[in-house]
Each structure stands twice: as structure tokens, then as C-alpha cells.
Amino acid sequence: MKSNKKDFFDKKAKDYDKEQARVDNVTNIANLILKKVAYSKDMSIMDFGSGTGLLLSKIAPHIGKITAIDISKSMNETLESKRNTIDCKLDIIELDLSKDNLYQKFDGIISSMTIHHVKDTLALFNKFYGMLNSGGTIALSDLDKEDGSFHNEDTGIFHFGFDREEFVNLAKRAGFKNVKIQTVGLVEKPYGKYPVFLLTGNK
Ligand SMILES: C[S@@+](CC[C@H](N)C(=O)[O-])C[C@H]1O[C@@H](n2cnc3c(N)ncnc32)[C@H](O)[C@@H]1O
Fold it and tell me: So what's the pLDDT on residue 7?
């Protein structure tokens, strides 16, 4: 299903992977996810806001299939161009998950640096819950609360990071169990340092 939404990443997609701090951050996120969540080759997961595939490419060797969901045509095209480097089955779907539905179920959902682009976090968590098989896992990473300086251009931001306690409570309200949140690391930019967290839990 195609979306009419503006492609905020149109000009960024081609060079997205060239920023080393970004690649390092997502690599740290992937490494912590792989420590905290048990995956196997007979599982299928969704990556919400998959972008150019920085996160899913690290998870791919440990999983059977990944469904990459992203609203951005240009980010999806960049991911498509890397398809032969992704070490599992891969579906790439252009979709605005905050508005549209994907009627599929997964054994897990991963996401990095995307949830701050969605206005209604609880509605998103409710949707995630409905898209998981029983026992299915979430591993969701994003910024801690920041002063708005992290993004120096408009990429469709609704939250300047999240308060961890509120984020945990929203996940619990959506029904997730065993919810835990921890620090992944820091994204260092010339004008600030931005902590990043990972929330894990299961249905
Ligand atoms: C900051 S990028 C992160 C990309 C990737 N997860 C990473 O860490 O490198 C955020 C991505 O989320 C996508 N996105 C934002 N809102 C979305 C929505 N409502 N549905 C699907 N994708 C969305 C954007 O198009 C973009 O590719």
C-alpha cells in the first residue's frame, strides 16, 4: 500500500549510511538486542521504520525472515539496493504504520530511532501488540528526552526523545510483559551527546 505522506528522507537516503556515528549507534543497538532477545532461524520479525536496513542487516543472520516496514520510498529503495547483502528472507513494504495496517503476525518486532516520528506512541504499541504471536518479543530503541537539538532538519519529528518511565508505562498499558529498559550508549554530535535506550518485552 502506498502512502501520500511527504518523504522526509528523500534527500538523506542515498548517503544515510555514510555517517559513522549513526552506523555505530545502530550497531550498538543491534548488539544489545542480540544479547537480550533470543531469535532463531524459524522466526519472522518486523523492523518498524527500517530505513536503509542498518539494524535489520545485523539481525538478519539470526532470523528466518524480516519484514521491513518504512513509509519512505527513497529509504526503501536504498534497502532494496542492498538486498543481496541481507542474510535472511526479506520483504520490503512501503507503509505508514501509524495510519495503515499490515495484517500479518510476527514472532518479534524491532525498531531503532523511529518511534519519535510517530505521534501516538500508545496507539503504535497497541498495534505492535496485535501484530505479535503469543510470546512474541519487542526490542525498541530510541532517544532519551532531549532539548530538540538532535535533529538539525525536519524529518517529521513528534517527540524530542522519550522519558523512560513513560515509555515503559505505555508498553505495559499496551499489554506487554517483562518490560525492561536500559542504556544502549550515546550518540555524539558536535553540539551534544544524546543517550539512547532499548526497551524489551514480550506479549
Ligand atoms: C531515523 S530513521 C531510522 C532508520 C533505521 N531504523 C536506522 O536506525 O537506521 C526513521 C525511519 O522511520 C521511517 N518512518 C517514520 N515514520 C514512519 C511511519 N509512520 N511508518 C513507517 N515508517 C516510518 C522513516 O521513513 C525513516 O526511514
Answer: 79
pTM score of the predicted model: 0.95
Domain-wise residue ranges, the chain: 16-202
Three-state DSSP state, 117: helix
Give strand ranges (E) for 100-164. Answer: 106-112, 132-143
Q: What is the mean pLDDT of residues 185-201?
A: 93
Task: For ligand 1, pick from 47, 73, 114, 120 the residue to mutate: most ligand atoms within 8 Å of CB.
Answer: 114
If you ran DSSP here, which 8-state letter would residue 53 be given? S
CATH classification of 16-202, choosing from 3.80.30.20, 3.90.1170.10, 2.60.120.430, 3.40.50.150?
Answer: 3.40.50.150
Q: What is the dihedral of CA 141, 79, 137, 129, to 10 degrees?
A: 90
Q: Kindly state the helix (H) or strand (E) to which residue 70 belongs, with its residue range.
A: strand 65-70
Determine the distance separating the centroid of ligand 1 and the alpha carbon of 96, expressed in angstroms.
Answer: 10
Using the atom order of ligand 1, give the atom closest to the CA of residue 141: 8
Long-range contacts of 22-27 (CB under 8 A, 24+ apart): 22/54, 22/187, 23/54, 25/113, 25/184, 25/185, 25/187, 25/196, 26/54, 26/55, 26/58, 26/112, 26/113, 27/54, 27/58
